[in-house]
Amino acid sequence: MTQSDFLKSVLPFKDKVFRLAKRLLVSTEEAEDATQELYFKLWRNKEKLAEYKNVEAFAMTMTKNYCFDRLKSKQASNLKLVHSNYKEKDTALEKKLEYQDSVNQVHRLIESLPEQQKLVIQLRDIEDYDFEEIGKMLNLKPTAVRVTLSRARKSIREKLIKQHNYGVI
Amino acid sequence: MELSKIESLLEKYLNAETSLQEEVILKNYFLSGNVAPKLQEYKAMFSYFNYSKAETLEAPIQLNTKKRNWKWLSMAASVMLLVSVYMGNNYLAEKQAREQYAQITSALQLLSSNLNKGNKAMANLYVYEDTVNKIFKPSK
User: Fold this and answer.
1) Chain B residues within 8 A of A6 when measuring between CB atoms
2) Which of A120, B39, B129, B134 could serve as a FRET partner for B33 with CA atoms 20 to 30 Å apart?
3) Structural domains of chain A, with CATH
4) What are the boundaries of each domain within chain B?
């Protein structure tokens, strides 16, 4: 496999990899590092890639596992991410949005979900994968994906309504 | 899109029973800017999903940096090796030449000192011949 063949097959989903990494690792820099690392790994194993029917799903699984490892090693070394200190680097996009506040709230609500629900929301509602694919990526049955997704969606909605009614986070 | 249809789709959406196509309908509705007031919370959700999807990786992906470094390093190392072998060879050849020169010089010196001994002996012979000539005057 030449470098250009390799890039043709893996570059189309680089943004998806990056967004998934960012969903789990929170900071943009961490997510960029993780994406870089993932592509190194894919490049090193490029001969094996042909064996996989769905390289994209394989890459998403690798990203998830790599990010979980990162999070674990961070906890072990007491370098836990402080979520409240986190600031979005690029605010230009956000400013364009009418409902900036409630949209930011959605971001924080997803951040507070359990990891599995975070992943499912990311893969379904943001990346538009079908249940079959998500199941492969997360090593879950499609029905389990459905249940997790339903919980996540309901939980986000309920919390938003609560905030909307009482005006408190 | 009728509100009742949107509401029934939302019901399915919360149970994760909507298809991807149905979710596109919902997304389009909530991003249209014409959303029923009682569904505002969904507007925030779908706006956020849409906004998140637009985020892209800004940093370039590099595949070869590590490998290229190794390549350059090994190239430099092999050049150094060649140069040092060449220099070492030169030095060795020079050293051998010096040794040979020293050996030849000492051999030649030995030869010449021996030759000198012979010359001295010859000189004695001449003295001897002269004396002999003095005593026995050669007859004509």
Assistant:
1) 63
2) A120
3) 11-82 (1.10.1740.10), 90-169 (1.10.10.10)
4) 3-53, 73-113
Across residues A31-36, what is the average pLDDT? 93
Phi, psi of A167 (to 5 degrees): 65, 15
Query: Using the beta-carbon criterion (under 8 Å), do B55 and A156 form an inter-chain contact?
Result: no
Contact indicator for A136, A57 with CB cutoff of 8 Å: yes
For the packed helices A55-76 and A131-138, what is the interaxial angle rounded to 10 degrees? 40
Distance (Å) from the C-alpha of residue A74 to the closest C-alpha of chain B? 23
* Range with lowest mean pLDDT among A44-53, A134-143, B43-52: A44-53
- Are A150 and B16 within 8 A, CB to CB? yes
Instruction: ipTM value, please give it.
Output: 0.82
Task: Give the one of A18, A22, A106 whose C-beta lies nearest to B45's C-beta.
Answer: A106
For residue B42, how many other CB atoms are within 10 A of its CB? 22
The proportion of chain A whose per-residue pLDDT surpasses 90, expressed as a percent, equals 56
> What burial class does residue A91 get, using C-beta atoms within 10 Å of its C-beta: 0-12 exposed, 13-18 middle, 19+ buried?
exposed
Place of tokens 């986190």: A86
- Residue B134's pLDDT band, with cuts at 50, 70 and 90, is confident
**Higher per-residue confidence, B109 vs A83:** B109
Q: How far apart are the C-alpha atoms of A118 and A23, rounded to whole Å?
A: 7
